[in-house]
Amino acid sequence: MAIKFTEREMIGIRRKLKDYARRTVVHTSMQKITIGDLAKAAGISQSAFYKFYDSKELLFFEIMEDMHSDLAENMNKSLLESSGLPPQERLVQAMRSAIHYMDEIELMRFFQEDVPVILMKMPQEILDKHYHSHDVHIRNALKGSGIEIKVPDDVLSSLIHILAYSLIHKEDCGRQYDLALDVLIRSAGEYVLTGKVPGGG
């Protein structure tokens, strides 16, 4: 006989599944995390897992969307707190905050290795309704802040990708990574606000 869960139990189990998945995926590939691992962490059977998610990938898709929302919230908080500063300094602080947040929660390993697999296995209707990449969330936060952006969306997205993916090679860059990143962010900020390459005349 199938076990029935109360609404309160359903909420609690879903939270345990997501908490375990998010804690684990920052250092372990999603493909190595089994439904048995997830079910054990939530105190349910493997068959009961499917009462909550149709697949493991759907759970991790939710984790990805939660990370995107947290990243946008981080950006919005920085932009709000810096509202009295000049536009370039606001943009620089917001971008620096976003990159440091992505580094703190070790986002890029998950985005580089697991997210392509997740997206490949998601039904198109779910992607159409819910999916936006991390650069879109950052871009929307910047554009919603009142800061006038002078470059096309695809250029802004490329700049965000370059800054974010530098985290993957942080160790290779050595002790001066933070300084180098700050130089890149400030140069990108100047370009985004003026539409002119710094030093380009």
From TrEMBL:
Q: Does the keyword DNA-binding apply?
A: yes
Pfam families hit by this protein:
TetR_N (PF00440)
Q: Specify the DNA-binding region ranges.
A: 34-53
Instruction: Output the InterPro entries linked to this UniProt entry.
Output: Homeodomain-like_sf (IPR009057), HTH-type_Tx_Regulator (IPR050624), HTH_TetR (IPR001647)
Q: What residue stretches are annotated with the HTH tetR-type domain?
A: 11-71
Stated name of the protein: HTH tetR-type domain-containing protein
Instruction: Give the UniProt keywords, A-Z.
Output: DNA-binding
Q: Does the keyword tRNA-binding apply?
A: no
